[in-house]
Recover the amino acids of this structure.
């Protein structure tokens, strides 16, 4: 059984996944998988260098993400090419890693779970839910960014109400971390019961 865990920037996904991990539940991070498939020396990175030229690589042989972002921003066809290369690889890797986790269930952590239709891989989904004001406040405390930068990222993500409508479970994370923990504990019991 696979549980998808999502939420906008600063909603508390990492905090929530730490709680699942403390309960012995394996968590796979979609962003980490997406980085790993284009790691130095990977077949996907070679294909990208062949397509875009070797200056898409840093002198150390890593992917120059900023440059690639620029290239696909100005060329929709290149974006489609890149997505059709990477999306199946990322999915395959995510599923392989999820399968390696112990029963009774595993968690797929993905900020863009709904945007990228990754909920199709999940039996149930959990939205960590806070108002935008809380996202702005927690991210500016966590990272060296200003509220406008956070707002731009929030605006680029699916709206809160659309995510609420699509999630199986919404966990309000405006309270303390202890509140979040007990809400996850209750969900954990539900998932354990459902998977047995
Ligand atoms: P995400 O992974 O969704 O971007 P994080 O889990 O990193 O979000 O949470 C954003 C910030 O808010 C972190 O500094 C985290 O410690 C803090 N945080 C998360 N949940 C709570 C909470 N319930 N109360 C107070 N701070 C919280």
């Amino acid at each position: 059984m696979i549980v998808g865990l999502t939420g906008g920037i600063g909603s508390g996904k990492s905090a929530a996944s730490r709680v699942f991990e403390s309960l012995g539940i394996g968590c796979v991070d979609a962003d980490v998988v997406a980085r790993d498939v284009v790691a130095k020396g990977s077949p996907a990175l070679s294909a990208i260098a062949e397509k875009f030229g070797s200056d898409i690589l840093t002198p150390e042989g890593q992917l120059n993400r900023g440059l690639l972002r620029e290239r696909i921003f100005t060329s929709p066809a290149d974006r489609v090419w890149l997505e059709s290369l990477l999306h199946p690889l990322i999915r395959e890797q995510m599923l392989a890693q999820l399968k390696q986790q112990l029963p009774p269930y595993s968690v797929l952590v993905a900020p863009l779970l709904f945007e990228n239709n990754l909920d199709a891989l999940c039996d149930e989904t959990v939205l960590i839910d806070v108002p935008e004001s809380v996202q702005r406040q927690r991210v500016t405390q966590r990272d060296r960014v200003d509220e406008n930068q956070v707002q731009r990222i929030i605006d680029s993500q699916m709206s809160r109400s659309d995510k609420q409508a699509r999630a199986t479970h919404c966990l309000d994370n405006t309270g303390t971390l202890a509140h979040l923990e007990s809400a996850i504990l209750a969900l954990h019991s539900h998932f354990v019961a459902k998977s047995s």
Q: What stands out?
A: The chain is about 55% helix and 10% strand. The chain has two domains: 2-25+104-195, 37-91. The mean pLDDT is 96.
